[in-house]
Write a structure and sequence with these properties.
171 residues, Conserved hypothetical protein from pyrococcus furiosus pfu- 392566-001, ParB domain, 5-stranded mixed β-sheet, 42% helix, elongated
Length: 171
């Protein structure tokens, strides 16, 4: 003789159905997280004295080409300033000083023509990895970067993205 499994009582079934419906409603009520919320895009534009800017050596392996800097200096002089601000972040251990994430050539060109300040986008909450991603991205999109440098930069960028940092911090 085979035993039949016990049928749940009506009360248990109703409670289970209600509990499942309640859980489903709670899950549906939670708004999805906007990926933009995870980005370190708390920034402001400010004119910063050039003597307050420091080159972050971990983000700049490439040597500055003096010819490119001279051309850029002429362009800055003609236009009366930079079109695209430098991207910087505060240096925690040095209050009032900023590390350049992107725009080193522009800062060098501005120094060459005697400028005292430059327009900078200050990223308030920017980790080392995010700063590196921005630096690589800015360098890879430039036309003067060699194919080898682009390849190395893209490989490193892919590696950083795979560390689950979320979406790219540009926008």
């Amino acid at each position: 003789m085979s035993r039949r499994p016990k049928q749940p009582t009506t009360t248990r079934t109703i409670k289970n159905v209600k509990a499942k419906a309640n859980n489903r409603e709670k899950a549906e009520a939670k708004p999805e997280k906007d990926p933009e919320d995870r980005l370190p895009l708390k920034w402001k534009i400010k004119n910063i004295p050039l003597d307050k800017l420091e080159i972050d050596e971990q983000h700049f392996e490439r040597k500055v080409d003096p010819t490119d800097v001279e051309k850029m200096a002429e362009s800055i002089k003609e236009l009366g300033g930079v079109i695209h601000p430098l991207t910087v972040r505060p240096i925690p251990k040095k209050p009032g000083r900023f590390a350049i994430i992107s725009g080193r050539d522009r800062s060098e060109a501005a120094k060459l023509i005697g400028r005292k300040k430059l327009s900078c986008r200050i990223l308030e909450d920017c980790s080392d990895d995010r700063a590196r991603m921005i630096s690589i991205y800015e360098n890879v999109i430039r036309s003067s970067v060699s194919a080898t440098e682009k390849k190395q930069g893209l490989a490193e960028l892919v590696g950083l993205i795979r560390t689950d940092l979320g979406p790219m911090p540009f926008g």
